[in-house]
Design a protein that fits this description.
globular
Length: 261
């Protein structure tokens, strides 16, 4: 059974693409009590104009937070800022959406170097690891407000945005689409992080699930994607609203289908 998303929601990578659309649809579809903390690296920059316009459209509901997922000090500062605003309420939903892809697609082996691998891993894996570690007390606080062992994104949850091309089993099918060594391997590591967090936090009834948004027409996904950001996020929102204990530690797509590791 689906539950309406709400409460305190923290989203990373929100100045464009899927992240921006997530903030938009969350603002539209959640109740007046919802508070959305929309994070991006340069809130005052030209690349965040659309996000600032959304925050103006929903005053008091959307708060823009400066956050660079490759910088531990920035992560700590963002957590402190949100903690002060949330107070005793706790954090109901964390969506780890921010990610980078280097070098340019198709990121062939012969043009990919150590720096590419390390920078992508730092943002796509280490950043979410540190963010969850720092936000855990707020997630636990939200989970404790409900009795019983039912998990949901309305109660307390971590959603890690992954991809079908992270699937080791499906690699023979997807490799020719784009080799993307740093991105593929970082998202495979994010899948393991999802599994570890799911095991670690199930005692707290915190749901942890990885979601594949589909091949989306964004700056990263390119113009040939099968889905618009609106279609992808509509699906993601529907799936998040229906997640429960059985989905904890899984990798699902935007339609709720399970993807093998």
């Amino acid at each position: 059974m689906s539950e309406t998303l709400g409460g305190n929601i923290f989203v990373t990578g929100t100045n464009r693409g899927i992240g921006l659309e997530l903030v938009k649809q969350l603002a539209e579809k959640t109740g007046p009590e919802a508070r959305i903390y929309a994070c991006c690296r340069q809130p005052e920059g030209s690349g965040a104009e659309a996000l600032r316009a959304l925050a103006t459209q929903y005053p008091g509901k959307i708060t823009i937070i400066k956050l660079d997922m490759s910088d531990e000090d920035s992560i700590s500062a963002a957590v402190q800022a949100v903690s002060k605003q949330i107070g005793a309420g706790g954090l109901n939903l964390l969506i780890n959406n921010a990610a980078i892809n280097k070098p340019a697609v198709p990121a062939l082996l012969d043009v990919t170097g150590k720096k590419d691998m390390m920078e992508v891993y730092e943002t796509n894996v280490v950043g979410p690891f540190l963010l969850v570690k720092m936000l855990l007390p707020l997630l636990q606080r939200a989970a404790e407000k409900d009795s019983g062992d039912k998990m949901s994104c309305r109660r307390s949850a971590i959603i890690n945005i992954s991809t079908v091309i992270s699937s080791i089993e499906k690699c023979p099918e997807t490799f020719t689409m784009a080799q993307m060594y740093p991105y593929r391997t970082s998202k495979a590591a994010l899948n393991m992080l999802t599994r570890c967090q799911a095991e670690n936090f199930k005692i707290n009834n915190i749901l942890v699930t990885a979601l594949h948004p589909g091949w989306v027409r964004t700056d990263m996904g390119g113009k040939e994607g099968h889905l618009s950001t609106q279609e992808s996020v509509y699906g993601l929102m529907s799936v998040m609203s229906s997640l429960s204990n059985k989905d904890c530690g899984m990798l699902l797509d935007w339609e709720g289908n399970r993807i093998p590791w």
